[in-house]
Amino acid sequence: MDATTPGPLAPDLLEREDVRRALAEHDFAGAFALIKKYGGLSQNRIASACHLTPGKVSTIISGQQQVTSFEVICRISDGLRIPGHLLGLAPRVWETRPVQEVPLPDPEGEQAGADEVPWRPDATVDLAANLTRSDLVMDRRAATRALAGAAVTGAGLLDPLEGWLQPAGSAARSRRRGRLGLREVEELESTARAFRAWDHKYGGGLRRKAVLGQLSEVAAHLDEHQAPQVEQRLYQVMAQLAGTAATMAWDTGLQRRAQNYYLLALRASHAGDDMVFGANVLAGMARQMLYRDQPQDALELIRLAQDGARDVAGPKTRAMLHTREAWAYAAMGRIAAFQRATVQAAEALATAKPSEEPYWIAYFDEAELAGTTGGRLLDLARQNPKQHAEAAATEIRQALARRGPEASRSHALDRIGLAQCHFLLGDLTGAVEETHHAVDAARATRSSRVRAQLGELYPYTVGNSAARPVREARDRIRDLLST
């Protein structure tokens, strides 16, 4: 359904005062009942339009279940063509312009040789060129379609990574001579480092195309035959740029594109003989899987990272890998394994010497360890608040006390997590205070991931809507998510 398709509701229905009041208060029991009575829509028709089950609609109308998910509210708006302002949302896309079907460039179809084992460096360069060319010409409407691209899981994700632990293959074609010098490589390295720092601080994809442009340039240089030292460092720069592009794509909701860039970063690390950064890339892929509720895939990725970098990874990298391992165990409900991996992470970090670690792992310090551990305890607290909520809050507070201004996105995620801890503990006063802090912190980032986590905080405010401070906190979340 696009803007040219009429909605199922008659325009005069949305002019009724009782309907508008029910929508404004997110009283969907009342709203659906009125839509059935005066709009002539059956429960099945409402369910189909809003991508809900008929049973779900029935429980909502009967008052047995409230709609607390921000995502579901948006689906109701779009499915029934209810203008955003009636629900406290920003104007929906269909209110302002038609959504046209635009063919989306499919870089997956252009990756000749990308799945071959052993991995060939020239195929990695081709992959970089194809990905960046596709992304750089993608307009806003094509990007909207790309948001629907689902992340690959299981064998489809893991099988193409078999080349990670094998020696590189030989190039299949001759190349013209390049003339890039070490000074130019150092400039590219400095740029890659600046992009990574910016992404760590703010998140979001505002500079994603700038990263892609630089990545495309590096691919062009690697399509030429450079001096061996220059070529190795260029592949390492490509890996770092691709890793940043992957994080930015993921942070803006482009899940499949993120995986494509993660794979490119892993292959470039392999070609540049940087197994430690490759392990970091695999950890990023594992984190994406954990957010997609695929802990077994995440654990497989972490084990692959540990196998590849076992003899070369420093203490910080090992500690970071242990926290991702712990995260997977927590998601599986394996409490003892989670605790063991968390202890291993702390022990490894305690032996770290900053001067001996690569710059890109500098973010992983005591604050990051505490924040990551607190987040996993919060996951467990959602199932058992009495056992884990207080411990989660303690760890998150330690992270907040130690984080610097360079970690705005992590700070916002910590604030959101701490607010949830207070709700789980039944401390409404503390929950409201932390929710306001969380909204303020979220405004300072451009991260879709932060907004998604804020959306998960929203339901906690609905069940306590009788309290005015909670309603005000809820309205602030809704206002931010609606922009």
Written account of the structure:
- Helix 21 (428-443) packs parallel to helix 23.
- Mean pLDDT is 86; it is low at 1-5 and 98-112.
- 66% of the residues lie in helices and 0% in strands.
- The two termini are 23 Å apart.
- With 483 residues, the chain is mainly alpha-helical.
Question: Quick summary of this structure?
Answer:
With 483 residues, the chain is mainly alpha-helical. It contains 23 helices and no strands.
Could you estimate the helical fraction of the residues in percent? Answer: 55-70%
Major pleated sheet: none
Distance between the termini: 23 Å
Overall pLDDT confidence: 86
The outline comes out as: globular
Low-confidence runs of at least 5 consecutive residues:
1-5, 98-112
Radius of gyration: 24 Å
Helices, by number, come to: 23
> Would you report the number of β strands?
0
Q: Classify the beta-strand content into a percent band.
A: under 5%
How does the helix and strand content classify structurally? Answer: mainly alpha
Assembly of the depicted chains = single chain
Order of helices and strands: HHHHHHHHHHHHHHHHHHHHHHH
